[in-house]
Amino acid sequence: LVLLVTDDGREPAKKPGANPGYGLLGMRERAVSVGGSLEYGPVPGGGFSVKAVLPVAMDIVGRPFDEPLIIRIAAAYEAATKHRKPPPAFGPLKGEP
Fold first, then answer.
1. What integer pLDDT is reported at residue 53 of this predicted model?
2. CA–CA distance, 46 with 39 (Å, rounded to integer)
């Protein structure tokens, strides 16, 4: 997942007495803690840009003899999320409509 936020360089509104927090440092620490990255800096012509790259994945863990069931579960997930269509021979899982 890539998130890119860029502003036009105008001064942001600041709340009087607001706690500054950890800002970019905190954002970088959070991104790195999940295996991602954060880049930021000025934009040519004015403005500022922040780019976060975060990993997105689905892990399936199982024992070797569970492999056919794991494949059917993954196919059902793909069918439900419309990412890809499973082969027609898979059919629905037990208990699924």
1. 92
2. 17
**In sequence order, what DSSP letters do the residues of 72-92 get, joined into one string?**
HHHHHHHHHHTSSPPPGGG-P
Rounded distance between C-alpha atoms, residue 15 and residue 22, angstroms: 16
For residue 75, count other CB atoms closer than 10 A to its CB: 19
What does the pLDDT read at residue 68?
74
Give yes or no for a contact between 86 and 75, defined as CB atoms under 8 angstroms apart.
yes
Among residues 82, 79, 84, the alpha carbon closest in space to that of 92 is found at: 79
Name the token pair of 58.
Answer: 């689905």
Residues 62-83, mean pLDDT to the nearest whole number: 71
pTM, entire model: 0.51
